[in-house]
Amino acid sequence: MIRTRIISTGSYVPESVITNHDLEKVVETSDEWIMERTGIRERRIADASQAASDLACEAAQKALKHAHLKPKDIDLVIVATCTPDMPFPSTACIVQDRLGIKHAAAFDINAACSGFVYGLHVANSLIKTGAHKRILLVGAEVLSRVTDWQDRTTCVLFGDGAGAVILEGTQEKRGIISTHIQSDGSLGDLIMLPGGGSRFSCSQESILKRLHFIKMKGNETFKVAVRTLAELAANTLEANRLDPSKLSLLIPHQANLRIIQATAKRLNLPDEKVFVNIEKYGNTSAASIPIALDEAVRAGRINDGDHILLEAFGGGLTWASALLRW
Ligand code: ACO
Hints:
There is one protein chain. By secondary structure, the chain is of the alpha/beta class. The chain folds into 2 domains: about 5-175, Peroxisomal Thiolase, Chain A, domain 1 (3-Layer(aba) Sandwich), CATH 3.40.47; about 175-325, Peroxisomal Thiolase, Chain A, domain 1 (3-Layer(aba) Sandwich). Helix content is about 35%, strand content about 25%. The chain contains 11 helices and 13 strands. It has helices spanning about 20-25, 30-40, 50-65, 90-100, 115-130, 150-155, 205-210, 220-240, 255-265, 280, 290-300; strands at about 5-10, 15-20, 40-45, 75-80, 105-110, 135-140, 160-170, 175-185, 190, 215, 250, 305-315, 320-325. A 5-stranded mixed sheet has the order 1-7-6-4-5, with helices on both faces. A 4-stranded mixed sheet has the order 8-13-12-11, with helices on both faces. The protein has a two-stranded antiparallel ribbon with strand order 2-3. Strand 4, helix 4 (about 90-100) and strand 5 (about 105-110) form a beta-alpha-beta unit. The radius of gyration is 19 Å and the shape is globular. The protein starts with a strand and ends with a strand. The mean pLDDT is about 95. Acetyl coenzyme *A binds near residues 156 and 221.
């Protein structure tokens, strides 16, 4: 049976850093509060000329280089983002053009912070059915453009970045073992960006009401995330009859260190089996897992045969997991 394998990874974060101490000068907050409640120390911010596709292209080029592949070798581009360059053309089409990926299809996926793992679910299905041979999947976000820098309850959380993977089929006993996606639209109002779509298009009123910025009921979201992610991780392993002790690395979405620790505790995982980089980047939404995956690969924390669990949670609400054998 054909399986889908991640054959290479790449990531990119903008150079500009905003620390918690910088934010202390913008809103009433403190480094101590942010570290204690979230685990975030600093985040990267795109410069004025950079949109999601620019970050995506940087990450994708690295993934292509690491795989020794040319743009012509890719037959589908998927970009997971909730901060696209514009409603259309899709960010994936912009990336396709910029990288010179001819004779391919391209589309975006929006599942907020779960977008990358949703993308793995889709890419896995398309490769297994034979519809596509080699897929470039990127998670890219410029959340700083939709962050309300007057709202201390959200502005301390988010950052910008991109991560990319290239996927292809394999006959080997490795690759994606299973993917699981779910959503609950009835909880959509917990995290939303209300403005800019067909409900509240850009107007003087939408601007005055600050509808073009992320709104989040943080504490309610936190409770749902802790419960859902711990269950999701346990259920994913159980569905594959894999004891948590056999897991080599958990790579969770980096939204809040306390949420990550709750999942690790549920699986009884020691710290060294949990990948955490939230301190450096904050929550980069769909980019967080592929950036972490790339960093884990470069740091030598993933070896052939390792079982890796990815899991994400975000606006929608959406959540998703993927179990891989590297
Ligand atoms: N600095 C100082 N104080 C603050 C700050 C801040 N930056 N932000 C909030 N506070 C205050 C609040 O006003 C509140 O004060 P009060 O008690 O006087 O009312 C107090 O701190 C506690 O606020 P809570 O919201 O209860 O704090 P909590 O411990 O829940 O932490 C946080 C907030 C970090 C947002 C947390 O709830 C969280 O991480 N939520 C989940 C985020 C998430 O996973 N999102 C999903 C992905 S996002 C996406 O899809 C785009």
